[in-house]
Description:
This protein has strands spanning about 5-10, 10-15, 20-25, 30-35, 35-40, 45, 50-55, 65-70, 70-75, 85-90, 90-95, 110, 115-125, 125-130, 130-135. It has about 150 residues and is mainly β. Strands 6, 8, 9, 13, 14 and 15 form a 6-stranded mixed β-sheet that branches. Strands 1-2-3-4 form a 4-stranded antiparallel β-sheet, with no helix packed on it. A 3-stranded antiparallel β-sheet has the order 5-7-10, with no helix packed on it. The radius of gyration is 18 Å and the shape is globular.
Amino acid sequence: xxxxxxxxxxxxxxxxxxxxxxxxxxxxxxxxxxxxxxxxxxxxxxxxxxxxxxxxxxxxxxxxxxxxxxxxxxxxxxxxxxxxxxxxxxxxxxxxxxxxxxxxxxxxxxxxxxxxxxxxxxxxxxxxxxxxxxxxxxxxxxxxxxxxx
Length: 149
């Protein structure tokens, strides 16, 4: 991953493809990310309906958007001082989940989540996180909720 290092007086700033961080002598030389960072998904695999905990840093208290492939959920609140988010692996995904209803019809339609690998990342007011992979091991055999519109 290409990184750009800038030395600004006592501070060092690092820009990379997914994050911005700074280092300060006042913080004992500790480097802090300025945007969201995902460290782990627990669990990292499971069936549709699994509750997943995202552990990391830099999540805003409110208004986090968790992307699961092209779908996901918005308005997610963090806990533990901005280090934890949780979501349930959805039955359906669609890019329309982030579209304003005022904009009208959305295409393509929702698609059923089937076994396979799905990219997970977070977007909040501070930027976009790195991505991690969640592996769906099985689809639901229960009656499905209707797809999002």
